[in-house]
Amino acid sequence: MSGESSASTANEKVALITGITGQDGSYLAEFLIEKGYEVHGILRRSSSFNTGRIQHLYEKPACFSGGRMHLHYGDLTDTTCLISIISKVKPKEIYNLGAQSHVKVSFELSEYTAQVDALGTLRLLEAVRVAGLEKQTKIYQASTSELYGKVVEIPQTEKTPFYPRSPYACAKLYGYWIVVNYREAYGMFACNGLLFNHESPRRGENFVTRKITRAVAKIQLGLLECLELGNLDSKRDWGHAKDYVEAMWLMLQQEQPEDFVVAMGEAHSVREFVEKAFAHAGRTIEWRGSGVEETGHDKASGQLLVRVNPKYFRPTEVDLLLGDASKAKQKLGWSPRMTFDELVVDMMDADMELMRKNPQA
Ligand code: NDP
Ligand code: GDR
What we know:
alpha/beta, 7-stranded parallel sheet, 4-stranded mixed sheet, globular, disordered N terminus, binds guanosine-5'-diphosphate-rhamnose, NAD(P)-bd_dom_sf, NAD(P)-bd_dom
């Protein structure tokens, strides 16, 4: 996998992405390649192909070769491989997006989540130091609005105190502070992007937005009867992943390393997302009952379309996230291109097309 990579020389645009096979990694790789970067990515060994989101970036996708993307087998739990890859690639920019990123799953895989999301960040920073690149390599850390957790202040800014509410958020809290510490201790150019939820047609299937758009598409095509969800009342500040990867890059183009909130500044409930997704399919949802008994029906026919299933509740929930991205707008010149409504339409259209072509998807 890694044989085709070349070490960077002065002024070359060379980036390394951990988590390149994920939603954000795939959009970021595309974005950087368009900007003329040579992009290196860390690929986890898997028993089935896990390059579906990035395969099109190869010059010859059918044989996984050619072009400006180079993959290296590795893992954030393996220090030796991180040192080896970073020493060889000598990236000018590293984007640490690799993570066990599912909040609910982190309650079941708490130790592993800490290994990857917390200690993995430390391993990466140390690997850069061991490679002697701490003064040359800029590092982006995928921090998260989940750090705010329990509502202390609305809207949330770079100065809002943290109150993590899951093993995932606790692990990411360590990642946040170790980045700040290495910046202060060793003068490393390392930034935290405090990104609020961002979605897309490439969003993992078990995050709520994608779960909804996939299910609505299947229901429309007669492939599924009913969508089961957990907490319908939690609110998130949802943006489009394509817009958010640009903010990551902008952070590393600054003179000084700083931390930035990236958000839309609008909160919407899960319930509202469900309503908008069905509305795009021409259906109006009528809610009946409350709590775990609540159900959503087609207003015209009465057909049951949505049901609450407590198995999707979390032991501790994050009720409301709403970000203030003023700093990113002023200092980075960042602004989102897609609205919340456009995001829902983009995801719905993509899943309708996907399910029509491949009902088994
Ligand atoms: P995804 O879950 O889509 O992607 C996660 C990536 O991390 C995948 O490439 C995955 O590989 C990789 N990964 C998982 N475990 C390891 C490991 N042990 N070693 C190396 N790589 C690993 O996440 P997103 O793209 O949505 O998010 C990117 C980052 O941003 C994550 O760190 C996430 O926590 C953070 N974040 C995301 C937000 C969002 O709304 N999307 C908001 C704020 C922060 P594989 O494909 O093999 O599973
Ligand atoms: P989140 O995203 O936990 O915010 O983390 P997710 O889409 O999983 O949940 C958002 C909200 O929806 C509620 N919910 C459900 N969630 C899921 N997954 N499945 C359901 O059936 C369901 N029903 C209701 C949840 O309880 C929650 O309140 C995401 C991840 O990308 C993190 O990695 C990232 O750090 C944060 O966003 C910002």
